[in-house]
Structure formats: C-alpha cells, structure tokens
Description:
Layout: H1 2-14, E1 27-30, H2 34-46, E2 57-60, H3 64-78, E3 86-89, H4 99-108, E4 113-118, H5 120-126, H6 131-139, H7 151-157, H8 161-177, E5 181-187, E6 195-201, H9 204-216, E7 221-222, H10 243-246, H11 257-276, E8 282-283, H12 284-291, H13 299-311, E9 315-318, E10 336-339
Parallel strand pairs: 1-2, 3-4
Antiparallel strand pairs: 4-6, 5-6, 5-7, 8-10, 9-10
Amino acid sequence: MFLEAAREAEALIAIGRQKPLRWNLDYFFVEKNKKAHRHLKYALEERGYGSRIDKDIHLINDSFDKHASNLIQFVKQKSPIKGRSIFLLDQYGYAHVPASQIRGIFHTLPTAEVILTFAVDAFINFASDTEATRRILKRIDLPDVLKGRTLEDIKRVEKDFRLYIQSCFYKELVEQCGAKFFTVFFIRTTGHGDYWLVHLSQHPKARDVMTTVHWSKNNHFIHYGDAGLDMFRTLGYRASADSRFTGQNELGFCFDENAGKASVDALVNQLSPLIHAQPGGITFGELFAAHCNSSPADAQKYRLALEKLINHKEVTAISKDGARRLRATTITGSDRLKVSNQSVFSF
C-alpha cells in the first residue's frame, strides 16, 4: 500500500517537471510468521520491487516489539529534526500492540503518525471475566479499561453493552497512547465483525488528512455515531443502525454524500454557540484543533458550515490583513471567527 502510494505520488508530482522527483524513503516490513514473511517477499518481487529489497525496502522476520526501538532510532537519525514517519501496526487482533509502545513512538518522534488496527468486536465476542482476559488487558496496557466493572455486570446492566465497551476502549486507548489527535472509525469486513482503523497523531493537520481519506474511501469505512461534534455519544456497533439488519441505509454515518450533508448541517447548529462563547473571537485553526477529535467531519466540512453561518450573518471570518472571508474555499487557519454585529436569530 505504501509503496504503491509513493509511486503514484511521484508520478503525479512529476507531471510538468523537467527533473523527476524522487522520494528519499525507507520501508520496513516486520512480519513474525515465517510463511507470511516468505509470501511478502514473493509478492514484492512479483510486483517489481525485488531489486529494492535490502536497499530501501527492509524485510524483518520477527515481532515488531523486538525491533521497535531500533526502528524509532533509525527514523530519528535519518530525520533528526522532524522525524516524519508512519507506523502501520496491522495486528488484525487486539492483543499484540501495547499502548506504551505507541506512546514511546510519540515521545521520540513527535511528528510520527500511527495507524493501528484493533479488532474490538473480536474482543467483545471472546472476552470473559477470567484471568486470561485480564492478562491480555494488562499486556496491552489497558488493565482498567472497564473501570472496575465485570463483563457480566456490563452485559446484564447496559442496554447496549457493545456500545458501552467500545466507548470505554476508545477513550482509554487514545489516552494511554498519548495521542493529541485521533480518528477511531470502523473498517467493514466480511463475516468477521467490524474492526477499528485507529489513526493517532500529534497534529490536527494529520488528523484532517486521515479524515479526508475516510470520506474519499467511503465504501470501506463506517461510523455508527453521530454526524456532528458529539459523535462518540453513540460510538459503537448497533444492530438497529446496521443496514444488514434493517435494510435501511446508515444515513449520516457512511462517509457518503448524505453523511456529508448531515455533518455540515450539524456543524452549522453546533459551531455557532462555540463562537458566541468567545468574546474576542477564535481562529479557525484553534476551533478545528479544539473540536476535531469529536467529529467525523474534515476541515472542509467545518468551512462549509462556517460559510452558511456567514451567509446567515451569524458570524464573520476576518483574515489577518482585515479581509472578509465569504466562501468556504477562502477560509484559512489564521482567520478569526467572531459573532457578527448583524446576527440574525430565528425563534
């Protein structure tokens, strides 16, 4: 995936350039299973990458945790100032990546991004109030994820116990990983339950880019929560919201056109009070950074919502040099949002 993406990006950037651009990238593929490791090498050779193995493509037949420190140091030495890197930790399970490992990545490489797969459905299906489950939670640094409650109690008391457990997991996982910005959305699988694709970073721009990917690849992603700034109120799986059971489209939650409209409409209602609460105004960058984690919307949908508020004369957007912004496409991070002196209220 990364190799193909880099190849496509190089080709796009090369259009119209006299001198072709070449990325200075290194790729590390860490696979513990010997058969899977051999197949990976074969697949790379079949796709024309064989000549690059042991050069910029590095294959490691071992567990990631044994090599994490060396990989982090490699990135730090290659890019000591920025340390830009992406770690894709595809465990396709839930018990192999401790939160402390991800926290260590961010501690040494502040501009790194981590993409983690987490089979939360599988955990809910197979976990129990046993020592085996407690050992797993301790291994991934989430020993208190259920806040002292037993699974038996949760399933007996909570009307939607899956929702409750998922909500507990996302909050604890993000906190223990030490990420300032994140997305926690589902990848739909066939026959094996949904699992999370968790994106963790320390910068709102990285969060926005990843959210845009979810919207552009909407056939593969789904979100069972709300469309606005309170999406985690109903985070999780609900059969009542799943078209496979209801026969209805998951309106507002599929990252499609309907979901986009629902997100913008929700933001129109929710952003206005936030701006009204700031007498001196707030920049668009500050507003987005403060609230993006709680919404499935990307920055462009925030801008579209603000355009509507500007047209309604609810708010104004003013650039540093005093220019008024009237369109979503012109709003930048440094533009200051303030309550309009001509606010129109509807009762």
